[in-house]
Amino acid sequence: MWDFVQRMRRALPDASTPEGKARQSKIAVILVVASLVLGQVGTTVLIKTGVNKESSVITGFLTYTVASLVFWVYSRPRFRATWSLWWRALLLGGMYAANVIASREALGSMPDAVMTTLFFFGGPFFAALLRGRSWVSRYLLPSVAIGGVAFLVTGWHGTFHPAGLWWIGVMALNYHVYVTITSRLKRKYEDGGDDQVNACISLSRVPTVVVLAALFFHADGVNATIDLGERAVLVCVIVGFLSGVGTIVANLAWNLGLQGGTHALLQPTRPTLSLFGGWIAGQRPLSASDWLPIALGVTLVTAAGFGATKAEIRARTQASKA
After folding, report:
1. Kind and range of the H or E element at 121?
2. CA 102 to chain centre
3. Measured CA distances, 92 to 184, 211, 228, 311 (Å)
4. Would you state the pLDDT for residue 259?
5. Res 10: pLDDT
6. From CA 137, how far away is CA 131, in angstroms rounded?
7. How high is the pLDDT of residue 17?
8. How much is the pTM?
9. CA distances from 17 to 7, 24, 30, 253 (A)
10. What percent of the chain has pLDDT over 70?
11. Distances (CA, A) of 95 to 27, 78, 91, 147, 201
């Protein structure tokens, strides 16, 4: 895999010229979209095969371990690092272990579109609102997003368990911890900040795998995996492989000079992707007439997400010029 990645990098356009840099930027956007699609394909496979209803500890450990192995083959992480980097990696790793379990539990208790939209509302959207400055980002956009969530939940009435909201909260908290740690790490290392963030994220996979492994063996994971069946284990391996490849693709996009604002503007598409992926997997409302409020809800949340992200980018630009 490493040789294949190296050949791909050599085949990329030369960034030393304006034309080559522009082509690299376009390729970076395509790679980010591809990583989002790969992640959604994996989720759709879990739902379609019913593995999302199985033990979150067992399936989470299997998929994440495979994903980490795939990513480590590509990234070749250096485990010798300073304590300043390791303590951040340990915190991120512990939080992400909780996130893996929470996402599996949430996916088993509600439709994917509801889970993704609620997470987007409490995670990336809320983070963008905190950095907004105008009355539009502080009042109008939250009202639009709340209305969208209300339409969405109304459309999916009777098809999800409210207890899943607890797991959504854990996922949103994990996102805010991730953003706080990575942003402060970038500010600490003005030169090479992105490299430090990549190293921290790569190292954080170690404690995540360790925590998930401890939970796995505590739950008698070996026998539980045998009881799970070959088909379900194979699904976990496939989903883990897709997740690992998706992470590699996203990492390549950042290496090509992907701008943080561009990446942020693509995130509001996730609720729409999850709605489409859930439909393919057979997740449909109780009545065909419920599709209208569902589609309207996802559209409103997505539009509010785009607006909040653009307001955040504008605020950062103004702050940098001040």
Report:
1. none
2. 13
3. 13, 12, 29, 28
4. 74
5. 54
6. 9
7. 57
8. 0.87
9. 21, 11, 20, 18
10. 87
11. 32, 21, 6, 30, 12
Predicted confidence (pLDDT) per residue in 65-90, tens digit: 999 999 988 888 777 878 888 999 99
Which residue type does 230 have? E
Q: Within 13 Å, how many C-alpha atoms sit on residue 283's CB side?
A: 31
Q: Report the candidate in 40, 69, 10, 112 with the shortest Cα–Cα distance to residue 205.
A: 69
CA pair distance 110, 113, nearest whole angstrom: 8
What is residue 254's predicted lDDT score, i.e. its pLDDT? 79
Tokens 């996730």 locate to 270
Q: What are phi and psi of 23, to 5 degrees?
A: -65, -40
Structure tokens at 58: 């067992």
Contact 311, 132 (CB under 8 A): yes
Chain position carrying tokens 């997400």 = 305
CB atoms closer than 10 angstroms to residue 41: 18
Classify burial at 202, counting beta carbons within 10 Å of its beta carbon; exposed 0-12, middle 13-18, buried 19 or more: buried
Mean pLDDT of the chain: 85
